[in-house]
Write a sequence for this structure.
């Protein structure tokens, strides 16, 4: 068996938009010992369909099994492996940073501007920043915030779509 | 559109699926269905434990090729089904379960499911990993289409169990019902036709092969592909090894038959599969019990893998030619292409090798002249049983002796728990098989340990007049575990002693069945012949030596070439 390198893969699935489907999908990963790195779920342009964007770490063989096993689920309608070279990926993060004095506050606001992030909440002891972008960008911004003291982080996980005119249509 | 209750709609939907029999146990949350069922003409067989209802439905399905149906109440009734459902899932058997559920709302109109009501269990959550499809019906009007969908999914593609959960108020709710032929399943399109390019590659490999071999699994039986397999094997003079689940898909008295391959495979099968240059694997998932350690499995062979389930291809073994399609159709197409390109192959060096090893198989399997050896008993049983008889087994040594020594000639006549290895499966499955095929003799090969797990179904067999023959190979130990402890744990026996209780003759009689103890092969033969004619279930207690082993054996984690012959 050839073991290829472990890599991050993005799998985009269109599923029936109904209760229990997220459970079925996440349960599959648990049962078969696949690790979910992140998962984001939301409605699509069709009200009865939802899109789940799942990132998994694994070698080629594992990811191929993930895709095949997902395809077997009755409520999963379409599974695509996204090619990193031709997709747009985005993640959103809310970051609460400790900011007791004006020096820190202005530093955080400056960094936020450079990263095209926004301050969305201010309290006497902290700022909350909203940032959108690729995961790398968010990681980089978080590194910059660490010296100030990051109190809380909420990240959505990656969502992604292929570029160009191609689209998935479900009857 | 017709106005009726959910329970009436369920029974009507079952009739439309030609359901004739349901195995189950009643309980508070399923009474409304039983209230309709009692006058419906559908036979309800009352088992004494829900696990056995699921196993019986499974045995019914395997013997007949039609879906088996079982029913239980909410909570413990539903959870008792779980082992039976998991068993059906691993062996791809179309068992359809209906469970009662607590009301979706309470009398004060607040929501009841999810509030830990009496006998509430989240059976949908529990069975999600072990069903092909499950669904809790929220409105009575959804029942017709849900039932139709469950039967469709359970029986097509790679079959598997389905479960429908029915809250009690949905059973009693009256609504307009629409029984339509239309079905909408966007996420399910099983592929049946093989891809022509892959078929061509397979044909080329088979034509060039010097030492081709077939590995035929349970999928060959499920898709009724035995005739196509026989034609192809004979055309190419290609030996056929079966997985445990494939036993019966190729007549074991055929010169090309090698018997089972794997942990308790025959000498010939385990040796020849490693010598092959092309392996045509059909309807098998390359389970660890079949392949042994993977790095030593078929090192020199090009592998063609035919399976209707795409996820099985490349899961355990890397293959050269993947074919995602129905076994029957694929074998037919391959045969059709080959027949134009070659004449029937006569005695080749490879076939001579097959004959040589198959001969060895006989001598090395010869268990000697001790009288009541299980090996001899199973060979004797083959002589007694008519061709269309069905043999069910329990799990453990009894099962592996049956696999090795009971020659199976036809598909669906050997019924056993392969994937899950469920002790206690054989007896209720035998009852289900007998219900499906009342004209066939049905025999359960049991161990004393396994039989104790579901022996209470003697009550069901007597009350419902389902006569089968149970042969208890009684060694007073949990024999297979004892064998492992003997061989690999320095004879440090632990938790395997069962003692010589109960008295199986008295036990059978206590249930109104017949019991007989035999002390020689002759007595066994007479008792069996008598049991086959009886209209009541017979338990034949056969005391055997507690240290009898099953050989050949490949130790766990070893390769097929590490077979211990005895």
């Amino acid at each position: 068996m050839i073991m290829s390198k472990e890599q991050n893969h993005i799998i985009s699935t269109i599923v029936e938009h109904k209760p229990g489907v997220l459970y079925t999908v996440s349960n599959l990963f648990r049962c078969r010992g696949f690790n979910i790195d992140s998962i984001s779920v939301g409605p699509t342009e069709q009200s009865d369909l939802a899109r789940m964007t799942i990132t998994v770490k694994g070698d080629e063989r594992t990811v191929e099994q993930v895709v095949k096993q997902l395809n077997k689920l009755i409520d999963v309608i379409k599974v695509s492996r996204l090619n990193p070279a031709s997709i747009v990926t985005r993640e959103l993060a809310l970051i609460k940073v400790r900011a007791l004095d004006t020096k820190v506050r202005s530093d955080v606001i400056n960094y936020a501007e450079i990263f095209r992030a926004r301050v969305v909440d201010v309290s006497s002891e902290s700022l909350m920043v909203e940032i959108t972008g690729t995961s790398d960008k968010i990681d980089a911004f978080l590194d910059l915030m660490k010296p100030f003291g990051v109190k809380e982080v909420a990240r959505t996980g990656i969502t992604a779509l292929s570029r160009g005119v191609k689209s998935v249509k479900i009857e | 559109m017709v106005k009726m209750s959910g329970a009436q709609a369920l029974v009507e939907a079952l009739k439309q699926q030609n359901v004739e029999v349901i195995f189950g146990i009643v309980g508070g949350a399923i009474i409304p269905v039983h209230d309709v069922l009692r006058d419906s003409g559908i036979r309800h067989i009352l088992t004494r434990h829900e696990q056995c209802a699921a196993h019986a439905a499974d045995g019914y399905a395997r013997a007949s090729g039609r879906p088996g149906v079982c029913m239980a109440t909410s909570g413990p009734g539903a959870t008792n089904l779980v082992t039976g459902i998991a068993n059906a899932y691993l062996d791809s058997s179309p068992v359809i379960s209906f469970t009662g559920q607590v009301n979706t709302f309470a009398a004060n109109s607040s929501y009841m499911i999810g509030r830990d009501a009496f006998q509430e269990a989240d059976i949908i959550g529990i069975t999600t990993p072990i069903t092909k499809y499950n669904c809790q019906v929220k409105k009575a009007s959804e029942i017709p289409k849900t039932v139709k969908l469950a039967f469709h999914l359970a029986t097509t593609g790679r079959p598997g169990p389905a479960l429908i959960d029915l809250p009690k108020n949905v059973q009693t709710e009256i609504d307009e019902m629409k029984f339509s032929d239309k079905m909408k399943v966007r996420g399910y399109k099983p592929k049946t036709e093989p891809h022509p390019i892959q078929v061509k590659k397979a044909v080329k490999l088979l034509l060039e092969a010097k030492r081709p071999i077939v590995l035929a699994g349970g999928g060959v039986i499920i898709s009724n592909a035995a005739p196509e397999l026989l034609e192809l094997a004979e055309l190419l003079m290609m030996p056929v090894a079966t997985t445990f689940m494939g036993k019966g898909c190729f007549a074991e008295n055929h010169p090309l038959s090698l018997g089972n391959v794997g942990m308790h495979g025959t000498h010939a099968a385990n040796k020849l599969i490693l010598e092959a240059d092309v392996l045509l694997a059909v309807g098998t998932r390359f389970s660890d019990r079949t392949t042994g350690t993977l790095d030593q499995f078929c090192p020199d062979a090009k592998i063609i893998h035919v399976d209707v389930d795409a996820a099985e291809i490349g899961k355990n073994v890397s293959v050269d030619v993947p074919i995602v399609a129905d076994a029957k159709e694929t074998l037919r197409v391959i045969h059709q292409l080959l027949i134009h390109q070659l004449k029937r192959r006569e005695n080749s060096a490879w076939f001579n090798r097959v004959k040589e090893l198959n001969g060895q198989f006989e001598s090395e399997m010869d268990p000697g002249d001790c009288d009541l050896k299980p090996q001899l008993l199973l060979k004797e049983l083959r002589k007694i049983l008519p061709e269309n008889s069905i043999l069910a087994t329990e799990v453990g040594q009894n099962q592996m002796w049956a696999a090795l020594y009971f020659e199976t000639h036809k598909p669906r006549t050997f019924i056993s728990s392969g994937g899950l290895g469920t002790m206690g499966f054989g007896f209720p499955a035998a009852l289900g098989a007998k219900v499906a095929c009342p004209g066939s003799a049905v025999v359960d090969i049991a161990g004393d340990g396994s039989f104790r797990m579901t022996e209470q179904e003697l009550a069901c067999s007597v009350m419902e007049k389902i006569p089968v023959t149970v042969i208890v190979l009684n060694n007073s130990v949990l024999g297979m575990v004892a064998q492992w402890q003997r061989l690999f744990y320095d004879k440090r026996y632990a938790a395997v002693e069962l003692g010589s209780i109960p008295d199986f003759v008295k036990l059978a009689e206590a249930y109104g069945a017949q019991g007989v103890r035999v002390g020689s092969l002759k007595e066994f033969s007479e008792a069996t012949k008598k049991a086959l004619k009886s209209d009541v279930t017979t338990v034949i207690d056969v005391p055997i030596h507690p240290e009898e082993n099953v050989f050949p054996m490949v130790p766990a984690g070893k390769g097929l070439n590490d077979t211990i012959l005895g």
In short: The radius of gyration of chain B is 24 Å. Chain B is about 40% helix and 15% strand.
